[in-house]
Amino acid sequence: METLGREIQTLDAMEITSMKSDLGLRVRITVTIVALSAYGGCMGPILRQQSPEVAVEEETEAENPLVGSVTQPYGLTYVKVEAVALVTGLSGTGEDPPPSPQRAALLSEMNRRGIERPNEILASPNTALVLVRGFLRPGIREGDRFDVEVRTPSRSNSTSLRGGSLLETRLTETAVLGEQLRKGHLLGVAHGPILVDPSADETEDSALARQGRVLGGGITNKSRNLGLVINSERQSIRLSQAIGKAVNNRFYSYVEGQQRGMATPKTDEFIELDIHPRYKDNVGRFMRVVRNIAVNESPADQQARLKLLEQQLLDPVTAATAALRLEAIGGDQVREALLAGIKSEDPEVRFYSAEALAYLDVTEAVEPLAQVAREEPAFRVHAFAALSAMDDGAAYEALRELLSVKSAETRYGAFRSMTAMTPNDSLLVGEDMSGKFTFHRLDVSGDPMIHATSSHRPELVFFGLEHKLKLPLVLDAGPKILVNGLSGGQIKVSNFGETTQQRIVSTDVEEVIRAIVDLGGTYPDVVQMLQQAKQSGALESRFRINALPEVGRELVRSGTESEDDTEQSTGYGVETPAPELFGKK
């Protein structure tokens, strides 16, 4: 039972949660629990005998271990960075913060920057002291952007952050040591307009009105490396070099015509990893595949293991693990096994096989993945990530067709996947709206839809070119801009700042948005206007915010397409974070 316990211990959460929720699942979970109990020293009844195939696999791995059985991943956690900062541009909804450690820290930072009369600035009702927090994702590189969260302290008298802008803030790791707040190294800076929930009311939803996000407002100044830490009982230069060689035989890229492997053994206990370009938007999968690479496996042993994996791939219980291990082997030798998998009648076997084929850039993966993206919410986010990783024209065409389907998250998921695949494509290239957000107009069929983001990056996407507003209407675009249309087919956009400015436009939504930006409006202002327009019935087009595919959904076997997918249950990858392409941090 010791070897079975060791084998079970190496399974990721993704591999466990991919099991089907039927009677067979309950039996298999019971077997797993019994096995784990035996491994920990608590003997229990054995419900079924170990199959010859499992015994062969364990014997093979004992002689030729996988990377994951002798190492632990390094760098896969999110790093939290924080700061105390100042928000300006409020319309009387701020406060003069009372004496506190946060106020003292902010005053110290303002003095360091040479800001004159800092106490007078803090006393203004148009400013507010805020707490800023961000998360640096695994594998983030120097200069990459990330979202930051902004909120007022719990005892603040500020009533709303709407219309506010975060001044440049230095972000560090922080910890409480000796009852004092200690800062670590500078890891990034952040600034920009704050997006507050457009539906939040200052009186009824005060908590929501006093928090928000700066989309892509953080910029990291230090890359985060990934790596493998060799288990303490196995550490040696020889093993470190062997692991590096095995990884580099499978993953490499070309720099100035020279082949360069993704692994660099640094010491007897640590191997540094670079992310292979194909996995740049799915770092978690890259690490899982690396950990399923065999160390020192002979051609004969590999062929024996291939035969076993071919059998395991066709069983939905073991399909996820088998597909990853076949992907880890790579090359033409695994192609036939995976092609057989996509012909299976079981949807899980088909998906896992197609997903692995996509990361091997095999055209046959496109059709089953596109079908999954259209019809199966449980696998959709991973199907999109796999399609976006391909260099195949068929994948591009499949994603383009999905821009016109009914489901909002499928349409936007296809758009985001295409921007990762071909960011300079003429269909997708957006317009920079005065540095405030990116505006995309897609000439596609399907119901007219407008999509706005509340994470990842400030971005507005029009699906279809015709979007109109119905009169009469009166809408807010932030605290200073009013959109007013009573009759005559014209709309007046007014900025009631120090001096009143106005623009007269038609009922075309794009014209209204351009007028708001021209009058100094920000991305949050535009989103607020669109939200109010939809709620009041002035906007006939569909309007969605952050319609992103999600992990953790139940497998639906009916194969039906829905307009909005909200099923949440125990599906694929419940414990697996979404690929970075669709992450919400």
Please give a quick description of this structure.
The protein is built from 20 helices and 21 strands. The protein is α+β, with helices and mostly antiparallel strands.
Based on CA atoms alone, the radius of gyration comes out at: 27 Å
Numbering strands along the chain, what is their spatial order in the largest sheet?
Answer: 2-3-4-7-6-5
Query: Low-confidence spans: pLDDT under 50, at least 5 residues?
Result: 1-60, 566-575
Q: Give the overall silhouette.
A: flat
The major beta sheet can be summarized as: 6 strands, antiparallel, barrel
Approximate helicity band: 25-40%
Separation of termini? Answer: 41 Å
Q: What's the rounded overall pLDDT mean?
A: 85
Class by alpha and beta content: alpha+beta
Number of helices: 20
Instruction: Tell me what portion of residues adopts beta-strand conformation.
Output: 15-25%
Number of strands: 21
Describe it.
The protein has 20 helices and 21 strands. By secondary structure, it is an alpha+beta fold. The strands form 5 sheets. Strands 2-3-4-7-6-5 form a 6-stranded antiparallel β-barrel. A hairpin with a 6-residue loop joins β15 and β16 (459-463). The chain starts with a helix and ends in a 40-residue tail after the last strand. Among the domains are: 1-50, no CATH class; 71-75 and 225-290; 79-220, no CATH class; 428-545, no CATH class. The radius of gyration is 27 Å and the shape is flat.
